[in-house]
Design brief:
The protein has about 475 residues and is an all-alpha fold. The chain is built from 21 helices and no strands.
Length: about 475
C-alpha cells in the first residue's frame, strides 16, 4: 500500500450563535450542495464542448447556455445519492466485521476469520468412502436399481460429501456466558446486515427517476463522461470485496506488469486466498486488466485494495458454518453435523434426486434420462462436496429460530438485494444506450456478466453456500 497522505484539515467549527451547532453544521449540507459541480475541462476535450466552470459557483444555480445541459443535473445528483447510500451500507457491514474480529481477538485468535478462496477448491476427488458413509453407499445401490444402466455412470459422480472445507471455526469457549455473548453479537450483526439491505433497497427507485431521461437527452452530455464510467464507483467496488467477491476481482486489483500472465491463471489452483504484494513491489507500469488502478483515484484505489486482504462477510459466514461441522455449535443452539448425520443428509439427498429422475413404475425410461441423470448427479456432488453447504442445509432443517438462523437469513437477503440492484442497473443501461459500449469501455454486455447464471457461483454471489444449501434441505 502507498504511504499515508497528508493529514486532512480539521472540520469547520459550528456556525451558530456563539459557536453553537446548527442543523446545517450537523448534516454538512453546504458540502453536499456544493458537490454539484463539473470539474475543469480535460485536456482532450475542445473548449466548445465543455462549460466554463470558472464562472460557476459550486452549489449555485445550474448555468444555462452553450455546453450546459439541464438534464445533466439529474444524472449527477442521482449518482451522488447512490454514493451517499453506498457509504451507509459500507458503514453497517464494516461494523459487523469489526465485531467479529474483536470477538476473535477476545478468544486469542488474531486477524479474524480465515480468508476464504473458493476458486482453487478441488472437487475432482469423487471416490466414495464406504466405511465412513454407509448410508450413502446403500442409497447409491438403491439408485442403480431404480435408474438402471442409464444411471450407472452418473452415480459414479457422487463422491464423499464435505470433502472440501470448511474454514476455520469460530474460536469461542463453550461456557454459558460465551454462548450468551455470541448470541447477542449475532443479533446485533443481524440488525446491521438487515439495515444495510434496506439501505441498498432505498436506491432502487433512483433508477425510476433516471429512466425519465430519454436516450437523446442523455446523449446531449454523454460524451462529457468519457472515459469515466460507473465502474469507477470505488465504494461499490469496496462493497463487492467486503462481501467476499475476491475471485471475481483478482485480475482487477493485482498490480501485475504488462505482459505478465493473468493473476487469475497464476493463482487458479491456490487453496488459500492470495495476498497482494506490498506497495514497494508493484511494477512501475500496471497491466491494463488491473483496472482498479486505472479507473480509481489513488486514495480510493488504496481503500479498495485494502478490502481484498481484509476479512469479508463471506469469510464470517464460512466460519460460522464451520462451527456446525466442527462439533462446536452448542452455543449456537444447533446440534452438530456429525459424520453420521452428514451421511444421512447425503443419502436422503441422493434418494430425493433419484426420485425426481426415475421413470414411473412400469413405464419406459425417457430417452433423455442418461443426460439428465449425469447433470443432476454432478450438481448434487458439487453441492455436497462443500462442507459449509451441508452445514447450512443441516441448520435450515432444525426446528425453531436461533441467532445463527437470523444472521444467515439476513446475509442471504443482502446477497439477493445486491443481485436485484445489479439487475435494475442493467435494465436502466439497456433502456438508455441499448447495446452500445459504455463510456468506460463496458456496457450492458459486461453488466450481464455480473449476474450470468452459468458463471461460477462464487463470482456472482457473495454467499454461494447459502444458496446451495436450499437445494440440500430435506423434510424433517
Amino acid at each position: 500500500m502507498s504511504a499515508p497522505g497528508p493529514v486532512p484539515p480539521p472540520p469547520p467549527a459550528p456556525t451558530g450563535p456563539g459557536g453553537s451547532l446548527l442543523y446545517s453544521d450537523y448534516v454538512n449540507d453546504r458540502a453536499m450542495i456544493e458537490a454539484l459541480r463539473l470539474t475543469s475541462r480535460p485536456a482532450h476535450v475542445p473548449p466548445e464542448r465543455w462549460p466554463d466552470v470558472a464562472r460557476h459557483t459550486p452549489g449555485g444555480r445550474w448555468p444555462r447556455g452553450a455546453a450546459w445541459v439541464h438534464d445533466e443535473v439529474l444524472f449527477v445528483r442521482t449518482h451522488q445519492a447512490f454514493e451517499v447510500w453506498f457509504a451507509q451500507v459500507l458503514h453497517e457491514l464494516e461494523s459487523v466485521l469489526d465485531l467479529a474480529v474483536e470477538a476473535w481477538a477476545r478468544h486469542g485468535a488474531e486477524g479474524g476469520p480465515e480468508r476464504v478462496w473458493l476458486k482453487g477448491r478441488d472437487l475432482s476427488r469423487r471416490e466414495l468412502d464406504p466405511a465412513r458413509f454407509p448410508r450413502l453407499r446403500a442409497a447409491r445401490a438403491d439408485a442403480r436399481e431404480r435408474l438402471g444402466p442409464a444411471g450407472e455412470a452418473a452415480l459414479a459422480s457422487v463422491g464423499s460429501p464435505a470433502r472440501v472445507g470448511p474454514a476455520r471455526a469460530f474460536p469461542w469457549g463453550r461456557t454459558a456466558e460465551d454462548a450468551a455473548a455470541f448470541g447477542d453479537l449475532l443479533v446485533l450483526a443481524t440488525e446491521r446486515v438487515q439495515r444495510a439491505c434496506m439501505a441498498l433497497g432505498v436506491t432502487l427507485p433512483f433508477y425510476d427517476v433516471l429512466a425519465t431521461l430519454k436516450p437523446a437527452q442523455f446523449l446531449a452530455f454523454r460524451d462529457r463522461l468519457s472515459p469515466a464510467s460507473g465502474f469507477g464507483s470505488g465504494q461499490f467496488r469496496e462493497l463487492e470485496l467486503l462481501l467476499g467477491l475476491r475471485e471475481r476481482n483478482l485480475d482487477r486489483v493485482w498490480p501485475s506488469a504488462p505482459g505478465d500472465p493473468a493473476p487469475s491463471d497464476v493463482h487458479k489452483d491456490d487453496a488459500v486466498a492470495p495476498t497482494l504484494p506490498p506497495r514497494a513491489a508493484w511494477p512501475a507500469a500496471v497491466a491494463p486488466r488491473a483496472i482498479f488502478h486505472h479507473h480509481l483515484p489513488a486514495w480510493m484505489r488504496d481503500r479498495v485494495l485494502a478490502r481484498f486482504d481484509a476479512p469479508s462477510l463471506r469469510d464470517l459466514v464460512h466460519a460460522l458454518a464451520a462451527t456446525v461441522t466442527a462439533g462446536s455449535s452448542e452455543g449456537l443452539r444447533v446440534p452438530a453435523l456429525t459424520l453420521a448425520r452428514l451421511d444421512e443428509l447425503a443419502a436422503r439427498n441422493l434418494a430425493t434426486t433419484v426420485g425426481d429422475l426415475a421413470p414411473p413404475v412400469g413405464g419406459p425410461p425417457p430417452a433423455s434420462l442418461r443426460e439428465k441423470a449425469q447433470a443432476s448427479m454432478l450438481h448434487l456432488d458439487e453441492a455436497l462436496a462443500h462442507a459449509e453447504n451441508a452445514a447450512v442445509a443441516w441448520l435450515q432443517m432444525q426446528p425453531g429460530t436461533t441467532p445463527l438462523h437470523g444472521f444467515l437469513d439476513a446475509c442471504l437477503a443482502l446477497d439477493g438485494a445486491v443481485l436485484q440492484w445489479r439487475d435494475r442497473h442493467i435494465r436502466f443501461v439497456e433502456g438508455i444506450i441499448g447495446t452500445r459500449m459504455g463510456t468506460g469501455g463496458g456496457g450492458v454486455d459486461y453488466l450481464r456478466e455480473t449476474v450470468r447464471p452459468s458463471a461460477p457461483a462464487f463470482e456472482t454471489r457473495a454467499f454461494p453456500c447459502l444458496w446451495y444449501a436450499r437445494s440440500l434441505v430435506q423434510r424433517v
